[in-house]
Design goal:
single chain; globular; mainly alpha; about 0% strand; about 475 residues; 23 helices
Length: about 475
């Protein structure tokens, strides 16, 4: 197997991208190396067969030696191909940023003294931007480039309006700077909820003061980013968070999808942090956010939806009793999971939903229909099965799974220590609850000690459910 940047990059290309890259390197303007074409032809066969990991240097050297008398080393050819692929990716990315391309063209035209030509492109660009309804960071960056180009053109052409255009350019720069500064600041504030970050709070106060003094909150993006930052910095003030939800609803037709996704992720992280701290009222807010994203079609990464994201949404909807919506979500969104794991993801989520609907046998059926998956799904599957066996009073199956579950966790060498503790402690506590229940009589002292033990654990999976099971046993003693 060849371990190189070239192979890593090629593995990220779609079939359509590969066709375009092939045309790119066949163009003598971009590539004059016959060796690169020959090596690419061999690589292309492996790519088409989805077998790039088995490509080796011996195979490529054999091909080169058969067809070329004088050759550079294979490493040099691979290096050339890598540079060509980097250039191709750069150009493909540039095509997605229309005004950035025009900006470079205008710069070149003015260098060649083609001022009228450059001016016509500037005017067309201004008209085109009037039709952009959804604006994001890229829009304001390009607005700065456009006003800069207009000002530079006025200097070349000795336009009397140069001073006015200069002020427009400064205003565009201020908006772009403040928007980007606020965005980066709320990213810092969001990360601070997970780990301490050394950050100049005085500079943060300065940018927030600049927003207030400059009365820039009438700009939708600045208003959203400013309120997002306040929500994260002043988490005890619920008004900021509620206002942010209101602003998202107000401005969703005026901001780009990328910006909306970015804010949704920040909101979701905020809610998760609150939930972890025990503020379970944020579960409903998080569900509303995820439900809105789903209904707006904002869950996709390229052409698929992350199975982990679907898993999280189904678990949250099920816990909140949103059964009808959650079932519809499973049926309508599982088809967007990668084909090779689609069926297992479907059964996992149907099993989760069935469990929270107290349909424990249905839950067991679906979870046993799954293929073996990654650690996150295996932990979820075994946990729900164990809880289902407990609820159904299946003592033999419960005992067997409880033992094998702990062995499974201990065997996971790459698993984080705190995660291991959380799931091992879960199995231990549930076993103790089952032992108390199986004796027929609930011992108040034992239940009190167990309740204290649950509260004392730093790492414990499914803590609310375990607490509920202890309470159910305690109720039977009265």
């Amino acid at each position: 197997m060849i371990k190189s940047r070239l192979i890593k990059l090629l593995n990220t290309l779609s079939a359509n991208d590969m066709k375009h890259f092939e045309r790119f390197i066949q163009s003598p303007y971009h590539n004059r190396s016959r060796q690169c074409l020959i090596v690419f032809e061999v690589i292309r066969v492996y790519y088409d067969n989805q077998n790039l990991e088995h490509l080796n240097k011996e195979r490529l050297l054999q091909t080169l030696l058969q067809d070329i008398k004088k050759i550079h080393t294979l490493d040099v050819v691979i290096s050339k191909l890598t540079r060509l692929l980097e250039e191709f990716i750069t150009l493909e990315t540039l095509h997605k940023h229309k005004y950035v391309k025009k900006h470079l063209l205008i710069e070149g035209l003015m260098t060649h003294q083609q001022l009228d030509y450059a001016n016509s492109i500037l005017k067309t660009s201004e008209k085109d931007r009037l039709h952009i309804s959804k604006k994001g960071l890229q829009f304001y960056f390009e607005e700065y480039l456009l006003t800069s180009d207009k000002y530079q053109h006025s200097l070349f052409s000795r336009d009397k309006n140069a001073q006015t255009l200069l002020l427009e350019n400064i205003d565009a720069l201020d908006k772009f700077y403040i928007i980007e500064r606020l965005r980066l600041s709320y990213e810092v504030a969001n990360r601070e909820t997970m780990e301490p970050i050394s950050y100049d709070e005085e500079m943060l106060q300065q940018i927030m003061e600049l927003v207030r003094i400059g009365n820039m909150q009438n700009n939708p993006l600045i208003d959203l980013f400013y309120t997002t930052l306040l929500s994260l910095k002043e988490q005890d003030n619920e008004n900021h968070f509620q206002r942010l939800l209101y602003l998202i609803d107000k401005y969703q037709d005026q901001i780009s999808r990328e910006t909306l996704d970015d804010i949704y992720k920040t909101l979701a992280n905020f809610c998760v942090t609150k939930i972890v701290k025990g503020e379970t009222q944020y579960m409903q807010t998080l569900f509303i956010i995820q439900k809105t994203q789903a209904e707006q079609g904002n869950l996709f990464f390229k052409k698929y939806i992350s199975p982990q994201l679907i898993k999280n949404i189904v678990a949250l909807g099920s816990q909140l009793g949103e059964f009808e919506w959650t079932n519809h979500f499973i049926e309508s969104h599982t088809k967007f999971v990668q084909p090779e794991i689609r069926e297992s993801i479907y059964h996992f989520n149907k099993g989760t939903l069935a469990f929270y609907q107290s349909n424990y046998k249905d839950a067991m059926y679906h979870l046993n229909e799954m293929d073996k998956m990654d650690l996150s799904f295996e932990l979820g599957r075994k946990t729900i099965l164990l809880r289902s066996y407990y609820e159904l009073g299946e003592e033999i199956a419960f005992d067997a799974l409880c033992k094998s579950f702990k062995e499974f966790i201990h065997s996971q060498k790459g698993m984080a220590g705190r995660l291991k503790k959380a799931y091992v402690n879960f199995a231990i506590v549930l076993r103790q609850i089952e032992r108390i229940r199986s004796k027929g009589k609930s011992n108040t002292d034992k239940l009190d000690r167990l309740r204290s033990k649950i509260n004392a654990y730093e790492y414990l999976s499914n803590k609310p459910w375990l607490t509920e099971k202890v309470r159910e046993l305690a109720d039977k003693t009265h």
